[in-house]
Design goal:
Blueprint: H1 3-25, H2 36-58, H3 63-87, H4 94-129
Helix pairs in contact: 1-2, 1-3, 1-4, 2-3, 3-4
């Protein structure tokens, strides 16, 4: 599997996870987990990941940078969400805690793959300039 394919798969999976979380917190998929602020935040992150995915599909060359930026944004948002859970300001269900753990388990490897792809692209470009 190519590095670009891995980037695209990570972006697609992450986008789907955030959209699903937004729909759950909006009350569309399951009752009892409604939380307006979480739904909005997850929807925004899902949209940013979707834009990064579309841009990466349309422009393969900057895909590693795009993936790194949008996944970094998603990781930051997830850490903010985890912090709000920890201080008692966010949703407090076991499902929310588990979901944030899953997000971190997907986002961190995704960021690493994007970082490595960006580094490889940079080194390739440096070799071509030499």
């Amino acid at each position: 599997m190519t590095c670009r394919t891995r980037l695209i798969l990570f972006l697609a999976l992450e986008m789907l996870l955030f959209v699903a979380a937004s729909l759950v917190h909006a009350g569309f998929l399951f009752a009892g987990y409604e939380h307006g602020r979480a739904a909005t935040a997850e929807g925004v992150i899902g949209a940013v990941l979707a834009l990064g995915l579309i841009a990466s599909l349309m422009q393969p060359a900057p895909a590693p940078v795009l993936a790194l930026v949008v996944q970094g944004f998603a990781l930051l948002g997830t850490l903010v969400g985890a912090f709000t859970i920890a201080i008692g300001a966010g949703p407090q269900t076991r499902a929310d805690i588990l979901f944030h753990a899953i997000l971190l388990l997907v986002l961190i490897p995704g960021v690493i793959v994007a970082w490595k792809a960006r580094r490889r692209a940079f080194l390739r470009g440096a070799q071509e300039d030499a």
